[in-house]
């Protein structure tokens, strides 16, 4: 299974991509969409490993970041940092080291169940028009609801370079049953805390490098980018962590890390 941070520009991660890339492997993956200013999505951040973009994330509070567990799994907090307040992936103006993180204790590395991790930053963020937190959604939206996706991931399948600027796209929430049927053909089981989003004709989707980033409806965090097959393949919508279902982990963990 190929999750959405693996097709990277950088050789040390490109090796991992090659190890995982096989016919029945999902990808963490925005193809399609447009470049957007950070003021359109001031809650979006770049999670970095050794100062290089690895995943996306969302600001949960002035001290915490919400991302995917597969973005932190097996890593030390000291190797991670977060870039905020810029659409430019190469910006170094606001980069904050990660002090520690709490990964969901039941994260399953085989099927990406409970794929969520909360980071605590070493210093507080100062909120302005380019840096803002995002609230968790309190509702599950029905299939067909439009949602926004954001990230610096690769812009076409098979590429290994990230978008230099933040991109955003519009997708629709997909019926979970039909999504499950599609992924069954790849021997993948969707669990209750997973949801799907895409567009019927394909072409707009999250891609490698977008993992951990937000799926947004009405300015609230509905999902966390997790995995998928291909980029923009109409047969396989992107799979996201359902933020409402896992809010019983996300909310108290943010509160705990904010207070530490």
UniProtKB/TrEMBL annotation:
It holds the Pfam family Trypsin. Keywords: Disulfide bond, Hydrolase, Protease, Serine protease, Signal, Zymogen. Transmembrane segments: none annotated. GO terms for biological process: proteolysis. Residues 30-255 form the Peptidase S1 domain. SMART domains: Tryp_SPc. The keyword Protease applies. InterPro entries: Peptidase_S1, Peptidase_S1_PA, Peptidase_S1_PA_chymotrypsin, Peptidase_S1A, Trypsin_dom, TRYPSIN_HIS, TRYPSIN_SER. PROSITE patterns: TRYPSIN_DOM, TRYPSIN_HIS, TRYPSIN_SER. Residues 1-17 form the signal peptide. GO terms for molecular function: serine-type endopeptidase activity. Coiled coil: none annotated. PANTHER family: AT26814P-RELATED, POLYSERASE-RELATED. Belongs to the peptidase S1 family. This is Trypsin-like serine peptidase.
